[in-house]
Every structure is written in C-alpha cells, then in structure tokens.
Amino acid sequence: MITARGLERRFRRKGRTGGEVHAVRGVDLDVAAGELVGFLGPNGAGKTTTLRMLTTLLKPTAGTATVGGCDLLSDPLGVRRRIGYVAQGGGTAPERKVADELVLQGQLYRMSRADAVARGVELAGQLDLAGLEQRPVKTLSGGQRRRLDIALGLIHSPGLVFLDEPSTGLDPQSRANLWDHIRRLRAGQGITVFLTTHYLDEADALSDRLIVIDGGRIVAEGTPDALKARVNGDRVEVGVDPGQATDAAGIAERLPGARELSVEGGQVRFRVPRGDVALPELLRALDADGIAMRSVQVHRPTLDDVFLTLTGRSLRKAEEAGHAA
Ligand SMILES: Nc1ncnc2c1ncn2[C@@H]1O[C@H](COP(=O)(O)OP(=O)(O)OP(=O)(O)O)[C@@H](O)[C@H]1O
User: How many angstroms separate the alpha carbon of residue 211 from the centre of ligand 1?
Assistant: First the structure.
C-alpha cells in the first residue's frame, strides 16, 4: 500500500539566522494492504512532515514513493483519490451540520449527492454518530468530533487512511472508545491504517507494527512485542529489611543473566532475562539464607524502554522537552 525510498524534506529557516531544517532525512517505508501501522516519535521527529509528503500535501526534497498503487510525484491526483487523510486539527466548519459536512466532503470527491448521503449514513452508524446528523459541529464533544473527522476522511471509501495523532486532546475514555472504532474499521472494512502518535500506549494498543522515527530517521521497526524484546530483560525490584539488602543483592547477582544491580535502602533492583523464571529461584535462595522478601515487582519492558535503548533518551522526556520548547 505504501512504498517509500529515501524520502527527504528540508525546510529553509525563516528569519535572520537562515539555514535549513532537515526535517526528514531519508525515510524508507513499506506498508502492506490491511496493516495498521503506528508511526511513533517525539515532537519534532518528522512524523507530520513524512505524513504530509505521503499524502501529497508537501513535496519531498528527495526520494520516491508509491501510495495506494500510484506514484507520489507523477500521479498525486491518483494518490489523493485513493487515500483518506485525517489531519491533527480536522477541518470542519463549526456552524455546519454533521450531515452537511459529510455530504459536502463526498461532493468534493465528486460523489453524487445521493451517494454521499448514503455513505454518510453508513459511516455515522459505524462511528457512533447516528442521531447527531442535524447538530452543528461545534456542539459535538471532542470524541464525537474526532469520529466525525475520521468519517470525513473515509467518505470516498479509500483503501488507505492516514490519521495524524488521532486521540490528541481526548480524555482517557474517549481515547479508548476511538481506538475501538479504529480497530473495528480496520477489521470490518479491511482498510489499511497509517497513524502517527507520540503516545506509547496508543502505539502499543493499536498497531500491528510500529515504525519509530527520531531526528528525521527511522530508528526501529517491528511489532510492539518484538521491539520490547529488544530491551534486554525484565526489571525486578525486591524489598527486604535494609540490614539484609547487601546479602540479598549478593544472591540476586548470582541469578543467571542478572545485570544492572543496585541497592537503595531495602530495595534491591536488577534486570534478568525473564522475571517470572528468576523469581522462584530468588525466593528459594533468599529463604535458605533467612532473608524475608517484603515486596516484589516485575516490570515488563515498555516502549519507552525501547526508545531509551535505541536513542539513549526517554520518549517521555523528549516529549516533555518538546512541549516546553
Ligand atoms: N514549514 C516548516 N518550516 C520550517 N521547519 C519546519 C516546517 N515544518 C516542520 N518543520 C520542522 O521540521 C521538524 C519536524 O517537524 P514535524 O512536524 O514533522 O515533527 P512531528 O514529529 O510531526 O512533531 P509533532 O509531534 O510535534 O507534530 C521540526 O524541527 C519542525 O520544526
């Protein structure tokens, strides 16, 4: 559905300092039909720029791509007909009624009024918007508006839809609801979905496959589980009497594959390849030495650990820095 090779985009910096921003630095992408791919990266990583290139809104400075079977550079119109694009802010007119927005959007894609009305009714049903057709857009909740944005992106029945940060600004319940809808659309209609996100939980919950971008370059790709498996092992945190912590640490150190050991008060922390396998052995050894375990936690690796392993930075920290900037 998407094949991109060496996509690049440079921007000329405005102002007195001038210079260039190399926003995307040679991106290769392959997305198969029916896949739900998450494009993950911190603020400023190049997600939106890549998406805008793939959706013909921005010309690449270098590289080639085929999107929905059409060449991005020689047949941008063909690409536009075959894709849906749901931008971050959406593009709805606040005063217009939901039904009118849907019909207008259909007509922009040269659908007949009757077809646009019928498709609008169908999408309103699928996206839980039925009954809201006569409401002005400005009266919708945040979640309803995002679902309307998605319906608008799907009015012409594209085989591929791009969603730019679909759940940004939604409360947790509306986010979970939106995810359900995205999953259902994919399952029911076999649509290929390419979505950008800087939310780790969103990427984890939705994507068959993740492509991680940082500093304009792809730094990793794979299923969420495969990426997590690249982080070596589970983090284990054992609580014991502070007076026995050094002895407990000595025991933990002898566990097969134990690393990154640290002791703080009565907390002994380390990594092992499999926390669930190491724990019974640790318990037996502590017991044999008369050390009582007061608490234990096993942390499976998260996508943030993956990001940290890949880039040396935490995605969350990169995010916070981005927001503060
Ligand atoms: N029109 C532009 N002119 C100059 N620089 C730009 C322009 N658009 C993007 N950039 C720069 O390119 C880099 C990548 O931006 P982009 O919006 O693609 O990142 P992103 O990963 O989508 O971030 P976000 O999550 O904040 O949307 C940033 O450094 C940004 O400032």
Answer: 17
3-state helix, strand, coil in the chain (%, to 5): 40, 25, 30
Residues forming a β-bridge with 270: 236
Distance of CA 216 from the midpoint of ligand 1 (Å): 9
Pocket of ligand 1 (CB under 6 A): 11, 21, 23, 41, 43-49, 198
Euclidean distance between CA atoms 303 and 208, whole angstroms? 14
Domains 2-223 and 234-299 fall in the same CATH topology: no
| Report field, pTM of the whole predicted structure over 0.80 | yes
9 Cα nearest atom in ligand 1: 12
Domain boundaries, the chain: 2-223, 234-299
CATH code linked to domain 2-223: 3.40.50.300
pLDDT in tens, 121-160: 999 998 889 999 999 999 999 889 999 999 999 999 999 9
Instruction: HSE, CB side, 13 Å, CA atoms: give it for residue 163.
Output: 34
Q: Nearest to residue 39, comparing CAs of 217, 212, 204?
A: 212
Locate tokens 């759940």: which residue?
167
- Any idea what the Cα angle at residue 35 is, between residues 184 and 209, rounded to 5°? 105
Tokens of 88: 């971050």
Pick the closest to residue 255 from 270, 242, 267 (CA basis).
270
What does CATH list as the number for 234-299? 3.30.70.2470
For residue 182, is pLDDT > 50?
yes
**In whole angstroms, what is the distance from residue 108 CA to residue 164 CA?**
21
Gap between the Cα atoms of 166 and 143, Å rounded: 10
- If we measure between CA atoms, which residue out of 158, 211, 177 comes closest to residue 47? 211
Centre of ligand 1 to C-alpha 323, Å, is: 13
User: Residue 91, Cα to own-chain centre: how many angstroms?
Assistant: 22
Lookup: tokens for 308: 């940290």
Pocket test for ligand 1, best of 39, 47, 61, 195 (most atoms within 8 A of CB): 47
